[in-house]
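Hello,

Following up on my earlier ticket. Below are the three sequence lines again, exactly as submitted.
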Amino acid sequence: MIHQLEVKTRGKGLYPFTREVAQWVASKKIATGLLTIFIQHTSASLVIQENADPDVTLDLADFFERLAPEDDPHYRHTTEGPDDMPAHIRSALTQTSLSIPVMDGRMALGTWQGIYVFEHRSGPQRRNVVLHLLG
Amino acid sequence: MIHQLEVKTRGKGLYPFTREVAQWVASKKIATGLLTIFIQHTSASLVIQENADPDVTLDLADFFERLAPEDDPHYRHTTEGPDDMPAHIRSALTQTSLSIPVMDGRMALGTWQGIYVFEHRSGPQRRNVVLHLLG
Amino acid sequence: MIHQLEVKTRGKGLYPFTREVAQWVASKKIATGLLTIFIQHTSASLVIQENADPDVTLDLADFFERLAPEDDPHYRHTTEGPDDMPAHIRSALTQTSLSIPVMDGRMALGTWQGIYVFEHRSGPQRRNVVLHLLG
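Thanks for your patience. The regenerated structure is below:
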C-alpha cells in the first residue's frame, strides 16, 4: 500500500510528522509489517530524533549549519542560492529513506523517537513524502 | 516475522552483533527476502562497517568524537549530560534503520561487512533492536 | 526478486547508476512494491543526490574530502593506504542501503533524484550492489 503526503516547511529546521504517519499506518489494520518512508527531494531529508526536548532539534539544525556552512568558498554550485549546496550536503549526511517495522498494528518506534522532515532550504517549501506499507 | 533483541553496551564505541542477527535469519529458513534492522533509540545508532581490523571501529568512534565534541558551547540541550547532545548528532549522522537483502538463506553482506550498534552515551545501556524479516 | 550488478569506479567520486536500476525494475512489471539497494562494501557507499548540475556531486565529494581528510594524524588504521580510513568514515556518514517505493511500475524518485555509488577509494574498483524487489 502506498500513500503520499505533503509536508509544508517554513525555512530550515526539523518538522515533525510522526502523527500523520501513525494515523495512516493505524488505518491499515496491519498487525505485523514494514513501513518505508521516502522523501522525493535532495535538499530536504528525513531523520528520526528525540521528540521530547525541542532544544535537541534546534541544536541538531545548528550543528549542520556549522558543519556545512552557507559561505564556504569551495562550492562551485552557487546558482540556486547560498543555501542550496549546503542543503545537498546535509541531505547526504542524513536520510532519504527510513524503514520502520510495524508491530501490533503500529510503528515500532522507541518512546522518545519522532519522525521529522529536515528542511535545508531557507524559503518555504512543499515536500513530497511517499509511504509504503507491506503487511 | 519480528524478533527483538537487546544489545548491552558499556560506554561509547561500536558493538558488533552480526552473529545474533545471522543466527535468527538462518533459523527462519527463508531463501530470498529482506531483513530490516531498527534501533529504538536516538542516542545510539546502527552502522555496517569493516569487521577485520578493530582499529577501524576505534578510528571511526574517535572521528565522531572530534566531529561532534562534548564541550561545544553552542549546545542548548545540556540537562541530560555533556554526552547527550553529541549522541543525538552522531545518531543523525549514522543510521536508525538498515535494510539487508537475504540471498540463499543468509544476509547478503560483503566479506568485510559487520553490523554494529554505535553507542554514543558514556554509561552502560541496554539498547533495543527490532528485526523484521520478509520472505 | 534479487539482482546483482557491478559498478566499476575509477577513483573517488559519485557514479550514477539510476538507469541500470530503473531498467531492472521496469523489466519486473510490478505495479506497486519496494526496492532495496544494498552495497556490499565499507569503503564505498550509496547516496541519492541531484542529477541535474554535475557541480553538485563534485562539491559533495570535495566536502567529504575536507570533512574526513587523508592526512589526519589521529588514524590508527593506515596499513591499507591513506585513503582507506577516510573511506570507512565517509561510508558511515552516507548509506549502505537505500529503500525506494515502486509506484506505477517505476521507482518513486523525485524529478531531480539520481542514485549514485559514492566511491571513496583512490584506485579503480568493482563495486557489488544487490537489488531486492518486493511486489
